[in-house]
Specification:
Elements lengths: L6 E2 L9 H13 L7 E8 L2 E12 L14 E2 L6 E2 L4 H15 L16 H6 L3 H5 L17 H9 L15 H15 L3 H13 L5 E2 L10 E2 L9 E2 L7 H5 L9 E3 L1 H12 L3 E2 L2 E2 L3 H8 L7 E2 L2 H4 L8 E5 L3 E6 L4 E7 L13 H13 L2
Parallel strand pairs: 1-3
Antiparallel strand pairs: 2-3, 2-15, 3-4, 5-9, 6-9, 7-8, 10-11, 12-13, 13-14, 14-15
Helix pairs in contact: 1-12, 2-6, 2-7, 2-10
């Protein structure tokens, strides 16, 4: 039986209580000017999208941080693309699990078996599982943007030593997905953007999802040192993450742009066991491998951004630019919150309270 496609409908059609969802929408409408410049929220259960809300501005500030006059601002719409930041990691993880399903990649294989130039990984026995579960021991990030050229960036990445014992404690690191990108591109002979396009977004009809540039995306940060790592001025339509930018915009940890509706399709696919409409991108057993604790690329049961959805297997991720995605197989629900919280400047202290509260309202709406 072909899994149904998403359709918009009232909360009751999805078996959801409308009152908590009204509270969710009210909260979203109040976010611009306090938490972000603009925001889009999409939430639903099963094939029914019960919440679609856009508020604020995709572009509100000019370079230097001054507010634009009203006639030059760009309103946020349901179709506004956003820089996904670390939500990109989820697509890299799916691309990796697709190769595991095909037998071309072993989850417990040493990554140096695929890319012998990864000398530090070879010395410390780093595996594909280490990368996907953030247990490689690698530090959170490496200033690749400071390297003189791409060759130097790759050399720095390939020789980076773990700072903790591989296979031990969880230590979140962008380097894991950058190394995984190296592995995927070597075993397939194709770039990561092609793997994501042909293996995920094109079969699912996610036409608004892809690596940049994306000229009509919501603006992110007015990047200036020392607040930011590079002097780039107001960033719009080009990846915000400095390392991804230095690598040409296609990176395993950042670089994708998408809309809330496209991400709802992505969520619905995983909730449907890897299929959406006539397309199948993963088998059910491999979706389970991806999403069951501790998660491969996905974070599982994290109340700090999942609110009351956390606790029985909710999976998802956040992005530095203000993005987040949560799907919960126990209740068959999904929530996408896309915002430009770094427009015009990154906050002194990141705050995921609005993400957690939105997820809590959705959890309370489940009958």
């Amino acid at each position: 039986m072909t899994p149904p496609r998403l359709r918009t409908g009232p909360p009751e059609r999805a078996g959801l209580d409308p009152e908590p969802l009204r509270r969710l929408v009210d909260d979203v409408r109040a976010l611009p000017g306090t938490w972000c410049a603009g925001v889009v929220a999409v939430a639903g259960r099963g094939p029914v999208v019960a919440v679609e809300e856009a508020a604020g501005h995709a572009v509100r500030y000019a370079a230097g941080g001054a507010e634009l006059p009203e006639h030059r601002r760009v309103r946020t719409t349901l179709g506004t693309p956003f820089d996904l930041a670390s939500l990109t990691k989820l697509f890299t993880a799916v691309a990796a699990v697709q190769q595991i399903e095909r037998g071309t990649l072993g989850i417990d294989a040493r990554i140096s078996a695929y890319v012998p130039e990864l000398t530090a990984a070879a010395e410390h026995g780093l595996t594909v599982r280490h990368l996907l579960t953030h247990t490689s021991g690698l530090r959170p990030e490496l200033p690749l943007y400071a390297c003189p050229d791409r060759a130097a960036m790759l050399a720095a990445l390939r020789t980076e030593e773990p700072v903790a014992e591989p296979g031990g404690a969880y230590l979140y690191s962008d380097l894991n997905m950058l190394l995984l990108q190296q592995v995927l591109e070597r075993i397939t002979g194709r770039r990561l953007d092609a793997l994501v396009r042909d293996g995920i977004t094109r079969p699912l009809g996610m036409r608004a999802t892809g690596f940049g540039p994306c000229p009509f995306a919501a603006a992110t940060e007015d990047q200036r040192t020392p607040r930011a790592k590079l002097d780039r001025g107001m960033v719009r339509g080009v990846v915000h993450d400095e390392n991804a930018y230095a690598l040409g915009g296609v990176a395993g940890h950042a670089g994708l742009f998408s809309t809330a509706h496209d991400l709802a399709v992505f969520c619905r696919t995983l909730l449907g066991g890897g299929a959406y409409g006539p397309a199948r991108i993963l088998g059910p057993d491999f979706v389970d491998l991806l999403l069951r604790p501790p998660g491969l690329g996905f974070l599982v049961d994290k109340p700090w951004f999942m609110g009351e959805l956390a606790g029985i297997g909710a999976a998802g991720h956040t992005g530095f630019t203000g993005t987040s995605l949560v799907l919960d197989r126990a209740t068959d629900t999904f929530l996408i919150l896309l915002a430009n919280t770094v427009h015009p400047a990154r906050p002194a202290r990141p705050d995921s309270t609005p993400r957690a509260q939105a997820a809590t309202w959705l959890a309370r709406a489940v009958r």
